[in-house]
Amino acid sequence: MSVRDRLAEISEIGRDNVRGGYSRHLLEPAEVALRSWFRSSAEALGLSVEVDGNGNLWAWWGESRQGAVATGSHLDSVPGGGAFDGPLGVVSALEAVAILKADGWCPTRPIAVCAFAEEEGSRFGMPCLGSRLMVGEIAPEDALARVDRSGVTLEEAWRQAGLGVSTIGPDPDRLAGIDMFLELHVEQGLDLEDRGLPLAVGSAIMAHGRWRLSIVGEGNHAGTTPMQGRRDPVVALSSAALAVREIALERPAARGTIGRISVTPNGTNVIASRVDAWLDIRAHTDSEVRVQLDTTVALIQKRVAAEGCALEVHEESFSPLVLFDEPLTARIAGLLGGVPAIPTGAGHDAGVLSAYVPSAMIFVRNPTGVSHAPEEAAREEDCEVGAQGLAAVLRDLTGG
Ligand code: GLV
Ligand code: MN
Ligand code: MN
Ligand code: MN
């Protein structure tokens, strides 16, 4: 097979006919279909597949569970996302195993292909849910109580999927059995396209976090309520969104985004009573994110108050700056022919794991530079180069 063939196998799963692209959310039918695809693809390669206590998928080459080189990514997407963010890393890992098996390679340590649950946090709001649970960064009870957009708790979704809820939580034995983690990922920018190169390794992930802003005003009739004296949280949100941009623009390399909004009650002829908006902030360092957040919230607070509304801010997640393991990254860059190391503003399971095991990333050129949108792209030949490169790296890391 090839990366192209493997991606073709899942190309109809989770297509979003309304938004375009793909919507593949944890334990919803499309994501469940991807889980079965993963199982059959891995079993066809002779790997033995298991679901861990946190809903992450593992496919093992070798009997031992110690000293493993793990590689993979995630199968879920953002709403209306692209075809590559996540699946490319899983597909490439499977293809790399296929390449090594076809060559008759005998690894001297186990290789695990993995797919982490809910990397995007699109259903239950917590990015890198599965990897964070595994390493113990989220309390099981907090995870189980999380609620999706339809009011279904993670616990209910878990039970409906036939997964045991008592197994959710830290998995130190599994973590201790992994010596290294590699995540191949589509690049989420134009750096490689600009450089004319198919691959890079990752040097760093910007610090980032998510905060829920709840703006409460006063619901009323759109026709009978005078314009003066309204307490309209949608108007307050509009000036809040401008504040996010103003502050981010003042700070070099900072990002500030409101990409998700929920309006209550969301009626055309109704002045809303409440708006919830999710604020995403990213910067080079943890403290820069904190300062940007504080400055942004202070300005939003003023503007919300000026509209007669009240503001509440709730931290949903925080992801500190990640610097990938330098020796491993340098070794991989060398094996790939001396490719550059580039930083990214996107979060990844490799970022979570990097605090516990040496971790590294390989990026594959994206000709549009777009990600988290249907226009996300990767050329077929670059994807094959990526899988060949990953196979070469696995061979090196699992040699005698
Ligand atoms: C996930 O891809 C993120 O960076 O938000
Ligand atoms: Mn993503
Ligand atoms: Mn991803
Ligand atoms: Mn991500």
Q: How would you explain this protein's 3D organization?
A:
It comes from Micromonospora olivasterospora. Allantoate binds at residues 210, 269, 282. By secondary structure, the chain is of the alpha/beta class. The protein folds into two domains: 3-206 and 321-397, Aminopeptidase, CATH 3.40.630.10; 207-319, Alpha-Beta Plaits (2-Layer Sandwich), CATH 3.30.70.360. 35% of the residues lie in helices and 24% in strands. It has 13 helices and 15 strands. The chain has helices spanning 3-9, 29-44, 87-102, 129-135, 140-144, 154-160, 172-176, 191-195, 233-249, 286-306, 326-335, 349-353, 380-397; strands at residues 48-51, 57-61, 68-74, 111-116, 178-186, 199-205, 207-216, 220-221, 255-264, 270-271, 274-283, 310-319, 322-323, 341-344, 359-364. Strands 1, 2, 3, 4, 5, 6, 13, 14 and 15 form a nine-stranded mixed sheet that branches. Strands 9-11-7-12 form a four-stranded antiparallel sheet, covered by helices on one side. Strand 3 (68-74), helix 3 and strand 4 (111-116) form a beta-alpha-beta unit. Helix 3 (87-102) crosses helix 13 (380-397) and helix 9 packs antiparallel against helix 10 (286-306). The longest helix has 21 residues, at 286-306. The chain is globular. 46% of the residues are buried. The mean pLDDT is 98. Bound molecules: glyoxylic acid and manganese (II) ion (3 copies). Residues 73-74, 85-86, 119, 185, 348 line the site of one manganese (II) ion (MN).
